[in-house]
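Re-running the complex after MR caught last week's input typo. The corrected sequence lines follow. Everything else is unchanged.
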Amino acid sequence: MVELRGVTVHLRYFIFGPVNVVFKRNTYNMVLGPTGSGKSTLLKVIAGIYRVSEGSVYIDGADVTNEPPENRDVSYVPQGYAIFDHMTVYENIEYGLKLRGVPRGERRRLIQEIARDLGIEYLLSRRAVNLSGGEQQRVALARALVVRPRVLLLDEPLSMLDRDTRERIIPLLRELPGMYGVTVIHVTHDWDEAYSLADKLLVINEGKVVEEGDPEQVFTRPNRVFTARFLGFQNVIKGFAERTENGSLVRLGDGISLNVNGEVDGEVYVCIRPEWIEVLGVDDDNNDHYNVIRGVVHEIIKNRLGYSVLVTVNNELSLIALSRIAFKPGERVLLRIPRDNIHVIRGDG
Amino acid sequence: MPRYSQARAKGLKNMHLFKSNIFILLVLLISILIFSILIIYPLALLIVLGFPMIPRALSVISFIQAVEVTIIMSTLSALIAIIMGTPMAYVMARYEFRLKSVADALIDVPIMIPHIIVGIMIVLAFASHYGLGPFLKAHGINFINTLWGATAAVAFLSSTYYIRVVEASIRMISPDMEAVARTLGAGRLRVFTSIVLPRIWRSMATGAILSWARSVSEAGALFIVAYYVLFGRNLVYPASVYIYESYVGIGLVNAVEFSAALVVIMLIIFVAYRVLISLGGDHARHG
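Corrected-run output:
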C-alpha cells in the first residue's frame, strides 16, 4: 500500500500538491492527466527521487518520507525505459539483485525465470543496444520486477510502442499485481489505456488530484467539467436546469432544451460523448427517452470509427457527434440523444 | 502557352538551384582557402623545414630536460583538473541552485584573463606578503621557479577545458537512468561508478588531454611564475620558454628546430593516447 498524506513538492516552475491519496496493495492504479499536470512528479515522489517539501509518504505503513530511493523497495520504469546500454540485457536485470547481495547462482535462476515470464530469454546475452521498443519495455520490466519490489512505478510505459505491441503488452501488465504481489502505479495521458487496465483511477491536473474512483464511475459519471472534457466528453454545454415530474429539464438557451435523468436545478453542465449522439437524416421521432435536436452539418472529419460530425444547432450551440454515415456539410440532420446517456454536472463542478 | 510557361518556370528553378549551388561552393572554397593559409600552411612549413633538424634538437640535453619538465608539469595539471573538475562537472550538469550562473561564469574566468595576469595572480596568492604567502614560506613551500608554481599556473589556465568537456558528456546521460539505478538499490557513489563513469570516462580522457595540451602550450603565465624551474639540481626552462629564449637569443632557424621537435613530440603523444583510449572498451559511442 502506498499512501501520500498532504504531500507538497516545490519544483522550479511548479507546485505539486497538496495531494492525499491511497493506492491499495496489489492493485493496478492508473494516474491520468494532461502533459505537465504533475503525473511524473507523483511517481518521482513515491520513488524518492524528488524531496517532499511538506507531508509524508508511507509504503506498507512505514513512513519513507526521508528514505533515499535505494531504501524504499520501489521499482521505477521511466518513460524512455532507461536501459543501461553499456551492459548486456542479463547485466541489466542482474543490477538490482547484485546490489541486494543475492548470490550468483540464485541470481542466474531468478533472471532466467523472469526472462521466461516476459519472453525475453533470447535477449539475455545481447548487449542492450538496438533493442526494439517492445524489447526495451520488457527488459525494463524484468529489471524492475526481478527484485520483487513492493511498488512498481510505470511512467507512460506504452507511449513509445506501436499499436500492435501495445495490445500484446496490456494483458501482461494487467497480470502484474497478481503474479508479483506488487502495487502498480501507472501514469498515462491516454484514457483508452487507463480504462482497460485500472482497478482505480486518479485524474491529476495542475499538480492536484481532481478525481479518483473506480474507472467505470470516473468514465461515465465524472464529478468535474475538467475530467469530463479530458475523458472524451467532447460536448460540455452550460445550461440551466429545473425539475420536472420525470427527471429534469435543462435549458441550453435559444429554445433548445434537453430532458435528463435525476433531479437537479440551477446552473449545470451537460456532458455528452459524441458516440452517444445518433445522427439521423430528417426522420422525426420524438419520445420521452430521446431528445431530438435539429441542426446543420458544419464540418466532418473521418476517423477510425466513422465520421466525427460537427453540427451547428444555433448561434451559440454546436455539438460533436459520431456517425457512420458521411453527411455533407450544409445537410440538415436530427440529433437523437438518449436521456440515459446525458451526464449532468452541477454548476460548481 | 501553358507548356511554354511551365518550361520557363522549370528553367528558372534550375537557374535558381544552380545559383544557390554556386554560392555554397564559393563559401566552402573561401573557408578552405583561409584554413589552408592560416593553419595548414604554417604547420606544414614548420614541420617540413624543421623535420631534418629534429634529431639534432633531441640531442640537446637542456631541451630534453625542458620537454621533461613540461610534460611532468602538464600531467600534474591534468590530474588536478580531473580531481577538481569531475565533481564540479557533475554538479553543474545535474543540479539547479542559486547562483549557478555565477558558478558557471567563474568556471570560464580562467580562459578570459590574460595569461600574464594569471602569473601575477599566482605569485600574489602563493608567494607574496599577502594571503597564503607567509604561511607557505614559513613551511618552506616555494612557488617561484618551482614545479609547484609552474603546475599551479598551468592548472589554473587549463582546467576549464576539462570541466566543460566532462559536463557536456554528463548532460548526455538521462537522469532517469540514474534514478532507476537508485531505485534498484544503488547509493549515489555506486550510481556514479556503475552508470555514470562507464559513459564519461572517454570524455574525461579527452578533457584531460585537451587540458594537458593547453598546459604544454603555456608561456605567458610561466614568464612570471616559473621562467625556469629548479628541477633536481638543474635550472630548466619550460619548453615554450626554452623556444622563446632560442628565438630571442639565437634566431629563427634555431627556434624552428626546437619548435618542430616539440610539435612532433606532442603529436606522437596525442596519437598514442588516442589509440590507447580507443583500445579501452568497445562502447565508443559514449565518448
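None of the earlier attempt is carried over here. Chain A is about 25% helix and 35% strand. Residues 256 and 293 of chain A are 8 Å apart (CA to CA).
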